[in-house]
Design a protein that fits this description.
Number of helices: 4
Largest sheet: 4 strands, antiparallel
Helix content: 10-25%
Number of domains: 1
Radius of gyration: 15 Å
Order of helices and strands: EEEHHEEEEHH
Structural class: alpha+beta
Distance between the termini: 23 Å
Strand content: 15-25%
Amino acid sequence: MPIAEDEGYHHDDWESVGIRIGPDGRVDERASSHHGYNYAQSVANAGSDVGSDALREAAEAVGVRPHGGWGPETRLLLVSGGSHAGNASGFLGNVDRIVPGRRVHLVPLEPVAAAEGDAYRFAVSPPWRKKVWRDPEATGTS
């Protein structure tokens, strides 16, 4: 049950985990969390979670949070209980769902995005309408 009870519930939702592979083969990961992306569950993610670039950038500047929410790949997606807060690392208590890598299935969304006007309707904005679809380094989820 979401924190806001029925006010925080909607039928469609798009939780995500991002994987970034560098030219040297290094693999990084981050998870969607409210209005931004996080790596490890922490109060330092507050700026990202509320969509405040200033707070997020301050936390990153002092080193209490990784830049853009990216960190070493963990093969996990952790979703906090009663919310949509995703993380790739860190158990600070209220984790509702743990999705190990072997249970994550990649689904190509390009065909769904191409047919959206004809076949699909969503209660929330689908991923292809978000900036991160065009720019994987984007820091916001809207």
